[in-house]
Amino acid sequence: MTTKALAEFTSALKYKKLSGHSVEMAKRCMLDWLGIAIRGSQETPSRIIRETVVDTGAQTASVFSGTGLKASMFDAAFCNAAASHSLDFDDLHNPSIIHLACVVVPPVFAIGEAEHKSGKEMITAVCAGYEAGGRVGESVIPESYYFWHATGTAGTFGAAAAAANLLQLTTEQTVNCYGSAGTQAAGLWEFLKEGAMSKVLHAGKSAYAGVLSAYLSQKGFTGASKILEGEKGFCRAMVKEPHLEKLTDGLGKGRLKIDDNSFKPYACCKHSHAAIYAVKALCDEYHIKPGDVAKIKLFVNEITNYLINNPAPKNPYGCKFSIQYCTSAMLKNGAVGIEEFTPEAIQDPVVRDLMGRTEVILDAEMERIHNENPAKLASKVALVLKDGRQVERQVDFPKGDPDNPLTWDEAREKFLHLAIPVYGEEKSKKLCNLVEHLEKSKDFAKDLAECLAD
Hints:
2 domains, 2-methylcitrate dehydratase PrpD, single chain, 454 residues, mainly alpha
């Protein structure tokens, strides 16, 4: 039973079994997530979800339990997950094409605080969540990606695995947790056509489903025992011929999925990052300015072409999923951070002119590279200059990928840049220190409260 094998591994995972690298990666994933969640909480979609989901004490409807129960863990996971996915600045596990932090870490923070868990327990739960989410994603990628947003679908299993591990559920309980989570999995790409807000809802619902499923299972609620491999289970619902072997190949025999996670230096869809990095490298090497460029040619794989080949995005969110905008913004501004996606920035006439000079080309070589190694989201860029020269650069691993990683200093700088405008310098530095040394925390709730105290 494939579902049981995966549940058995994630439920049995303990801190002492983790490599030093896995521990460091888990903390880096949490730090990266926290900064994005803090800054993302200021975005309109995050505010709307928060105002809708969180009980502000109005008591407009009753929960007939006789206990006055508050579901703050569920609300917190939902809202923090949505916020952390609102900037498109969050991490990516390339082979599964899932933003795992935004669905795995919110349940861990919510349960960790509510249940007074230790830092070591939280680190372990994050590793368990990445393992399940990454494996389930790989089992249905790339075929399912045309319709289904993997963070919303396969990511639900990552949230469930993390929550189940942190609550120390048995293998049987974790199987039931997976069953309940999988039946809630959802997330369609149609929203991209209009730049609608649905993407953050996918993350929020995945995290919420993970927490809910774990607590239901803890109380004896059952779910499908073969939710992954079953005839009417998740994998076959996603694609006609799923890669079921990906669910268990090498399970427990080597590196964890979290060991090969990537992080974003650019606040936009990861499929544009190789091209953005190539543009930056060419501009730096040849001292190219926007006025020097006659044409931009972007050679991409099939997923990049159908997902972010958008020559005329109409709003900031649409620009995050336009490779034309992202590469033009890099050429003009030398950066593609959150400041490049304001309503004013996206109307920059120089950037819009460069977009009009940009051609996206579906390239057989880029597709071959991705098919041979799904971790390579490669692109090639050719800049045709007005003086007649053409300069080219292919990037297989942009900055932030495991083969071209962000350093701890760069991760810390990114966190502080995002957190300080919301929490101020003192609290932000305390939060950074807490996560960076999380294995020393005996009671996360107590230590978090000290960080946030006035």
